[in-house]
Design goal:
With about 160 residues, the chain is mainly α. It has one domain. Helices cover about 65% and strands about 5% of the residues. The chain has 5 helices and 3 strands. Strand 2 and strand 3 form a beta hairpin.
Length: about 160
């Protein structure tokens, strides 16, 4: 008997909800805690990696392009992370997306789309790239840069929120 299978539409809805929630919180502005920086990227990377591991028809070409795309996604996320506004609010580090962040986002989405088109043209199967892995890698790159900038600022990170 096979393992459990998650409905792809349900998974897409969950991933979309996570991404929208993160972006909305960062538009409004939110305290920077280590947990909040890394929870969403790690969850998305795990989902994407598990999804990738379940694919039985991957080729070496697919894996090379997926790895390159993941590295590119992290680099583009890092670029976006460099544009996020960091401030001291109430004695803790806060982050907020601003206009530069969204301009960078548009540019990085164009680069990622071009990369994906090139990968498919060069032999990668289009269905071989888990979107969750790409999004997670992008958020991880962003979080690493924001975390590094936060440490360099000397402003204390916010304590993790209890939910």
């Amino acid at each position: 008997m096979g393992g459990t299978h998650v409905n792809p539409w349900l998974l897409a809805a969950i991933v979309t909800a996570v991404v929208i929630a993160v972006v909305i919180r960062r538009i409004i502005g939110e305290p920077v805690s280590v947990r909040d920086l890394f929870a969403a990227p790690v969850i998305l990377i795990v989902i994407g990696t598990v999804s990738l591991a379940k694919k039985t028809d991957l080729t070496g070409t697919d894996l090379i392009w997926v790895i390159a795309g993941t590295v590119l996604g992290a680099a583009l996320g890092a670029l976006r992370g460099a544009t996020i506004r960091l401030v001291d609010k109430g004695g803790f580090l806060w982050q907020r997306y601003d206009g530069r962040t969204f301009l960078t986002l548009v540019g990085t989405l164009a680069v990622a789309a071009g990369f994906n088109a090139l990968a498919v043209a060069m032999g990668m199967h289009e269905e071989a790239r888990p979107l969750q892995l790409s999004i997670g890698a992008s958020f991880l790159g962003e979080s690493l840069v924001v975390g590094g900038r936060g440490l360099a600022s000397g402003i204390p990170f916010a304590p993790a929120r209890t939910r």
